[in-house]
Amino acid sequence: MVRSLWTAATGMIAQQQNVDTIANNLANVNTVGYKTETNEFKSLLYQTLQTKTTTANAEHKPIGAQVGLGVRNAAITSQFTNGALLESESATSFAIQGKGFFSVRGNDGQTYYTRNGDFNFNLVNANEDLVLSTSDGLPVLGTNGQPIQLPATIGGQKVIANRVTVDANGQVCYPDDQNNPQPIAGLQIGMTQFQNPKGLNKEGDSLYSVTAASGQPMNEANNNALEKSVIRQGYLEGSNVQVADEMVNLIVAQRAYELNSKAITTTDDMMQTANQLKR
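RESULT FIELD:
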């Protein structure tokens, strides 16, 4: 009976982790580019109580007796389905339709990836050049792996940030004298894909980093075998969290937690009864 105490305890711990994951999903329901996470469980080792043998009548008994020792969390997996497009009044808001990721350069010089396209233009030097950056000031990288940096002037005119446009391919454009958008050479927002995006490591701040499980980043501009992503200026990608589903999952996790708690109290009552048999 002591075995059931520890088995039920593993169930309570696993369901607590499940509730933690659900709570994180609900907390990020309005986070741009957030991908919902799901818990995956696996059973622990089994203890063999009886091996394959024969019955008292010498009849063949091919099936032994094994009892499980509980459950544990196997993985917390991000679901990379596209979120809804949310209209934004900002000219530096970008949503991705497809499997791509934006690339940004971290403060440590490493490249990170995100689906959060809530960007801004920042002044970076005395010449007043503009760099497309995240809300935390990390520069967004182009297809060449370099920051998207606009000169202070184009065609002798001072660049105004809210007049910059980006087409569906990520090409950065600026209007000419006739107000027709003209591509700026060498400035195209980079799109990166992975063989297994679920293997990316979550760094926080809506950033992901490469791991052996995710595979190496694949630049859409240099790989014709990839299905190209589409960039929508003036939109943001909302989270793909389904509140109704998360509430149902929360109720199921709560009931499973209660059942495991009930198993512990039942085992305790049985042990108490056994201890009282000597009286």
